[in-house]
Design brief:
The chain is α/β, with parallel strands linked by helices. It has one domain: Metallo-beta-lactamase, Chain A (4-Layer Sandwich). The protein has 7 helices and 15 strands. A hairpin with a 2-residue loop joins strand 8 and strand 9.
Length: 238
């Protein structure tokens, strides 16, 4: 596990050289908000880092329900019994292994690993714009129908989940990068993801923190380039 700190954000990167899977501890006045739960074996490292920081984990917030973002959730809940879990109302269905689509959604199959044995369930179902501590939930469908990003109202930093990636280059979900193609393989709808990418750029984040790759300071230029590249590829039908 590799730990990187930027302001109040701690990035915990598992398998950082091979297949980086990130989760984040966000330091609040009263405790820590854990954003995503990484891989099944990650609970020990997450809890140890919280102990090192010296504050309790008071909330667990999930960007989406893919296996590499909820992997350690059951293990964490055995230790953090009374800590509430937050996820979007839409992706809560994926936690039940429900891959059905709503009528207004793109009728392409939901992709990526969905946990089939997950026992933990959310305590709060998030809607677009709701606050969790200093974080504002931003609905960014595309990678999954209910993906959420979290914008820190204090620092302007953004946890994007898999709406963007920075591993192998900066890309919008669904735009396949040869050096790290896996987020694209797991993306439900690229055109929807592109719309969500534009939405995140409009927030003008000071920092981009993704599920895969290093945190990126002053990311607007790179995010805009990624959007332009994906727009061209979609227009060409690539």
């Amino acid at each position: 596990m590799k730990i990187t700190k930027e302001g109040s954000f701690y990035q915990l990167a598992f398998l950082p050289r091979l297949f980086p899977v990130n989760c984040y501890l966000v330091e609040e006045e009263e405790g820590l908000t854990l954003v995503d739960a990484a891989l099944p074996y990650s609970a020990k490292g997450i809890l140890e880092e919280a102990d090192r920081i010296g504050k309790p984990i008071t909330k667990i917030v999930l960007t989406h329900a893919h296996e590499d973002h909820v992997g350690a959730l059951d293990s964490l809940k055995r230790e953090l019994v009374n800590v509430p879990v937050y996820i979007s109302r839409r992706d809560a269905r994926l936690m039940e292994d429900d891959r059905s689509l709503d009528g207004q959604e793109s009728q392409t199959p939901i992709k990526g690993g969905i946990p089939k044995k997950l026992m933990a369930r959310p305590d709060y179902l998030l809607e677009d714009g709701e606050r969790v501590g200093s974080l504002r939930a931003i609905h960014v469908p595309g990678h999954t129908p209910g993906s959420m990003a979290f914008f820190d109202e204090i620092s302007g930093a953004l946890i994007g989940g898999d709406a963007f990636q920075t591993r192998g280059g900066v890309a919008v979900a669904g735009d396949l990068l040869p050096l790290f193609p896996f987020p694209a393989f797991g993306t439900w709808c690229g055109k929807t993801a592109l719309e969500s990418g534009r939405k995140l750029v409009s927030l003008k984040p000071s920092l981009l923190a993704c599920g895969h790759g290093q945190m990126l300071k002053e990311p607007l230029g790179e995010m805009a380039k990624a959007i332009s590249r994906f727009e061209r590829r979609i227009d060409k039908g690539v």
